Amino acid sequence: MEMTGSEDRWALPDLAGALRWCRGRNARGIRCTLDVLGENARNEEAAAGSVDAYRSCLTALEEEEGLSASISVKLTDLGALFDRRLCLENLRTLSREAAQAGVGFEIDMEGKPLVEFTLEAALECAAEGPLTLAVAANFDRTTDDLEAFLGSGIRPRLVKGAYPGDVADFREVQERLKGLVEAALAFERPFSLATHDPEVIEWALGRLSEEKTLVEFGFLMGLSDLTKEKLAGQGWAVSEYVPFGSRRRAYQARRLQYLRELARLGREPAP
Description:
Strand order of the largest sheet: 1-2-3-4-5-6-7-8
Oligomer: single chain
Number of helices: 9
Structural class: alpha/beta
Helix content: 40-55%
Shape: globular
Number of strands: 8
Distance between the termini: 15 Å
Strand content: 15-25%
């Protein structure tokens, strides 16, 4: 998959580009999670614009025959910073319409102040249809939260955490992520492990070899292309997080900070 001059490493310019990219990834056995770029909406008009953008995405995915893709939302993009009741209404609307369209629905985990609300919102939406929720290993509460909502049918996407949490030590977060995998396995429910850490991936391939049908390896667009294609070719379930749109500054900043931090530690993401 090669990018054109209107694209960059981390995101695609528009919905048409995201759909085109997804078709190419699907041809390689990789499912896509589409994210309309945007976060930290400050008023009702901005949140409504995001809802409309996601509705357009759902309509396009419903019309695309055989496309393997879901959508992922951020609660701050739906109004969580200024009106949590409105945010929950927007979230439930999108969750319901995604279920009606037969499109998978995912919620990203953002900063620590939003963890409690995000979990409550996810539990409320779980009745609308299949739901995936990102859970971050760098929060102290995550193991307890994971056990609480696995029983509600929510599918976890296990991540280290892109936002500041309770712990920042690289090794400790690695071990916490492995612990979340063990906790998820105990429930014998499907889950996603989203990481570009080659050590964690190597560990997971050995640990999950007998539970291959339970796990999906998740990656970001712009990272670990060789690894994601290799795993898909070996029969593992693989997904790629594909952001699109013009509001990309905050998202790009987190990706660049991730690479800077790895460089500081003398590490690299999986190839």
